[in-house]
Amino acid sequence: GTAALIWNEIIREKVTNFIMNQSKEQRILNFVLQNAVRGDPCSVVDTIDKYCSQKEWAMNVGNEKGRILDKTVEEANPSVALELGTYCGYSAVRISRLLKAGARLLTVEFNPEFAAIAKQMIEFAGVQDKVKLLEGPSEEIIPQLKKKYEVDTLDFVFLDHWKDRYTPDTILLQECNLLRKGTVLLADNVIFPGAPDFLNYVRKSPHFQCTNYPSHLEYMQVEDAMEKAVFLG
Question: At which positions is Mg(2+) bound (predicted)?
Fold first, then answer.
């Protein structure tokens, strides 16, 4: 798995970027703009999956784990959801297409280039009314959620950013009183690349009830899993 990631993410991507004079993320967006149906979030998600499974690997949640994400979102039925790690907007589009009328998703992206791509992806999918993209580090944005973005508490949180931020950001969400009894956290990539500190924290905490969903790394046959942690108060 590590060797495949190094090949796809570093060697192959850098060579292709140099030859084509554009980023992989721009190529994914261009493929969507040319092949997906504008205003159809399902078409956008399917088109990204097609590109990343057939042409270039990318770190979207992917369709296999995407079905776990869908099921969790549908069960949580959130009014206010938070995503940490937007990347190209794949999961923001995937989550927002399941939100009820009046619900909103706040998605946080640290990388300005990824944020610019995601913004176009979200608008093309027609879900910009449900999604607000917040640019900057999660540790700075989380404490601003209550006052600046009028969040009382969160119903659903999707963790899919830097793995070493999973635990500190979960603690920060608790400290900022953003979690209520029943808030659902879902964390991606807990086996590969892995988030052992996070698993240790939520599984040993009396404040969380955890469920593990074995799966595979997006667009590969490498073992991975998602962890659901329900906040008990």
Answer: 160, 188-189
